[in-house]
Amino acid sequence: MRPRHVALALLTVLQSVLVVLAISPQARVGVKTFLLIPQLLPGAPVRPLMFLTPAPSKSEVRYGYGEEERIADLYRPAGGGRHGAIILFLGVNPAGREDPRVVRLASGLARIGLVVLVPYSQDMVDERVKPQEVGALVAAFQYLEQQPFVAPGRVGFAGFCVGASLAVVAAEDQRINKRVRFVNDFDGYYDLRDYIVEIVTKSFRMDSTIQAWEPDDLAQRVVTRELIENMPAPEDRAELGRVFINGEPLESLNQDVITPDGQVLYQLLTSTDEQEAYRLLAQLPPSVEGLVAPLSPSSDIGGLQAKLFVMHDRRDDLVPYVESRRLVAAVDGNVPIHYTEFSFFQHVDPTRHVPPATLLHELWKLYRHLYGLMRLALG
Fold it and tell me: I need a labelling partner for 227 at 20 to 30 A (CA). Which of 76, 80, 107, 160 fits?
């Protein structure tokens, strides 16, 4: 074949590709997803979205939740029209709204055509998890879907760690569950009761086998604080908090000071046996044990109607990956699911060192996961 004919053939192929990209919504979503991935990688040498797309607008907004007023950052794509929208919930002790990772992710999503809302919670910043966060997420959803620049029926959640679990609980809420289009759960727990037992015993159950697990200090601190601070007796909060929160020696604990309920919690916090831990947890007063249901996706999993995307770091030391597997097993067949386990994340940051071939495979898995999510969000 003559060079001229080769050139014409290549030009024809290129034109065909460009036509497909222009007319195929799936192809456009694929390209946008591909361009989004460098926004998620802290060491990416180049981020094409930064010079291929106009910068989004960013503003602080306020919306009502009961008698409270909540604050969030709102990112909007440049230009007019209506867009799909996503609520990013960052979890306990989050990076912060101005953290470069959060800004890169939110602005990247806005650059490819999504409205992004990043709610702020002082309790979560202070490493406290309250049932009220679920209602606040419902209010955030209602606020976002009412905006004239948001496309009807194309609003969903994406949460991280504990924030992921609360996003699923919010999506189950009967006030909004029929209108939530998708939920992306990254490293969340399924049942808070199981998670508490996993934290205190430093182990988790995989099928019929108990596996040792060393939870991160943050996970232990958050669970321990919530258990102690919700005890009804001030003497229990003070004495148990002195040792288990402030870090004073365990042998200094004055067991004559704490109540019988406090004794139960003390035994739970020092338990290493799974069955004993479940038994002790069930004996705690309602102010503590009663936190489990409103903060657990397992409590009303039948209420979830959104398509579910689940991601988990296979070696996560804040939430064991079995929690996501239990979530997927619980909803399998009821709603569409896309589940991906990763080995190059360290919790929710893609920073774990892996061989080049493994990294390429991990990036391909990330692309496939995000492509499915973006197809729903972008419409």
Answer: 160
* Structural element, H or E, at residue 186: strand 180-186
Is 342 in a helix, a strand, or coil?
A: strand
Convert the pLDDT of each residue in 319-373 to its tens digit: 999 999 999 999 988 888 999 999 988 887 888 888 989 989 999 999 999 999 9
Task: Verify that 185 and 269 share a domain, yes or no.
Answer: no
Same domain, yes or no: 176 and 99: yes
CA–centroid distance for 266 within its chain: 30
Helix 356-378, helix 25-40: angle, nearest 10 = 130
- How many domains is the chain built from? 2
Concatenating the DSSP letter of every residue in 234-301 gives HHHHHHHHHHHTT---GGG--TTTS-HHHHHHHHHHT---HHHHHHHHHHS-HHHHTTTGGG-GGGGG
Residues 47, 178, single domain; the answer is: yes
Model pLDDT for residues 28-71, shown as the tens digit of each residue: 898 899 889 989 888 778 888 888 899 999 999 999 998 889 99
Are 327 and 350 contained in the same domain? yes
Is 143 found in the same domain as 77?
A: yes
- Same domain membership, residue 203 and residue 185: no
Q: Measuring CA to CA, which residue among 173, 174, 227 is closest to residue 200? A: 227
Task: Answer yes or no: is 344 within a domain.
Answer: yes
The answer to whether 86 touches 158, Cβ cutoff 8 Å, is: yes
pLDDT at 20 over 60: no
3-state secondary structure of 372: helix
Does residue 7 lie within any of the structural domains?
Answer: no
Q: Specify the pTM.
A: 0.91
Q: Is the dihedral of CA 55, 57, 59, 64 positive or negative?
A: negative
Decide if 3 is inside a domain: no
Three-class DSSP category at 320: coil
Do residue 106 and residue 204 come from a single domain? no
How far is the C-alpha of 321 from the C-alpha of 325, rounded, in Å? 7
Domain identity same for 226 and 284:
yes
Residues 149-163: pLDDT tens digits? 999 999 999 999 999
User: Left if phi > 0, otherwise alpha if psi is -120 to 50, otherwise beta: which for 307?
Assistant: beta
Instruction: Note down the domain range covering 99.
Output: 30-190+303-378
